[in-house]
């Protein structure tokens, strides 16, 4: 999924820093003990017995997979399979989520549902976070420039519609609006990649810089949660800006030299850039699941 969450992230990070300042570090003055050999052996055995949490395993795997990647560079097929295998096994409890949480409660009638973003981690290589959507919550059509994105639906039912650009049809300012339209915006032709419902449990969805449905829209049929991994994350200075779009049926515009057989028209749409929707509200909340140790 991966919509821009910089403001929400900043608020969450500030709260995290305040929390760290209030927690004393009890390991600054380690005690000495003459019987250290036996204790060290027991510690080693204990460490071997302690299982790595799923979210820690996810973090460790992301570190490996995205270590040598950058904008537009796709991880190797083996790395993609490795990360997908970790996400495929994820359950809501692995990140401390239950459907009864306030994030997932239905909105008051007439009000646009508020989406909650739980920040897990972000660095210049990748980001991890969870989008919590109440029923009818919508993440509008948006892109993921130069990114490889893994999305795991943790619970609930969600409708996804995604597109990829038609490579040999550039953006056109000469599009002629149909009689029902008065504006003549710049539009670009895109092909529908997915237009269906996802019902958890299901496999992880993956999109790529130029394939896999790089532009997508999510609509919550029921309350749902999506764990997102983006590599690399959004970054305006690096040219990875989150761009939103409107989509129009193929017959709404006519462009010289572009034609689609009648029976295939439903598989295409014209996309027009737009500003971030005014009714889109994403709030950042502290992640309360198992801790991630950033080694």
Automatic annotation (TrEMBL):
The catalytic activity of this protein is classed by the Enzyme Commission as 1.13.11.20
What are the start and end residues of every segment in region (Disordered)? 23-47
* Keyword Isomerase on entry: no
| Cofactor(s), names only, from the UniProt record | Fe(2+)
- The lineage's top-level taxon is Eukaryota
Q: Which CDD domains match?
A: cupin_ADO
So what does this thing catalyse? Answer: L-cysteine + O2 = 3-sulfino-L-alanine + H(+)
Q: Where is the composition biased (Basic residues)?
A: 37-47
> Does the keyword field hold Cell inner membrane?
no
A molecular function (GO) held by this record is:
metal ion binding
Please list the GO biological process terms of this entry: detection of hypoxia
Q: Keyword set for this entry? A: Iron, Metal-binding, Oxidoreductase
Q: Which InterPro entries match?
A: PCO/ADO, RmlC-like_jellyroll, RmlC_Cupin_sf
Q: Which family does it belong to?
A: Belongs to the cysteine dioxygenase family.
This one is known as: cysteine dioxygenase
The organism named in the record is Salix udensis
């Amino acid at each position: 999924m991966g919509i821009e969450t910089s403001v929400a992230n900043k608020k969450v990070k500030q709260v995290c820093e305040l929390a760290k300042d209030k927690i004393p570090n009890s390991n600054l003055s380690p005690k000495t003990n003459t019987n250290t050999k036996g204790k060290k052996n027991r510690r080693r055995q204990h460490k071997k017995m302690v299982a790595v949490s799923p979210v820690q395993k996810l973090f460790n795997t992301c570190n490996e997979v995205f270590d040598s990647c950058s904008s537009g560079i796709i991880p190797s097929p083996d790395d993609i399979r490795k990360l997908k295998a970790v996400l495929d096994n994820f359950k809501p409890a692995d990140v401390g989520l239950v459907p009864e949480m306030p994030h997932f409660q239905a909105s008051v009638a007439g009000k646009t549902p508020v989406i909650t973003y739980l920040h897990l981690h972000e660095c210049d290589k990748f980001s991890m976070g969870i989008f919590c959507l109440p029923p009818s919550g919508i993440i509008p059509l948006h892109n993921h420039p130069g990114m490889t994105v893994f999305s795991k639906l943790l619970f609930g039912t969600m409708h996804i519609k995604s597109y990829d650009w038609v490579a040999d049809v550039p953006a056109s300012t000469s599009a002629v609006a149909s009689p029902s339209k008065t504006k003549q915006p710049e539009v670009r032709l895109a092909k529908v990649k997915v237009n269906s419902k996802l019902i958890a449990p299901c496999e992880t969805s993956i999109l790529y810089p130029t394939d896999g449905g790089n532009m997508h829209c999510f609509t919550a049929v029921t309350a749902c949660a999506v764990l997102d991994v983006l590599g690399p994350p959004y970054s305006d200075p690096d040219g990875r800006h989150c761009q939103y779009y409107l989509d129009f049926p193929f017959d709404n515009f006519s462009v010289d030299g572009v034609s689609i057989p009648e029976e295939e028209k439903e598989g295409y749409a014209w996309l027009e850039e737009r500003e971030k929707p005014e009714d889109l509200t994403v709030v950042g909340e502290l992640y309360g699941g198992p801790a991630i140790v950033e080694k």
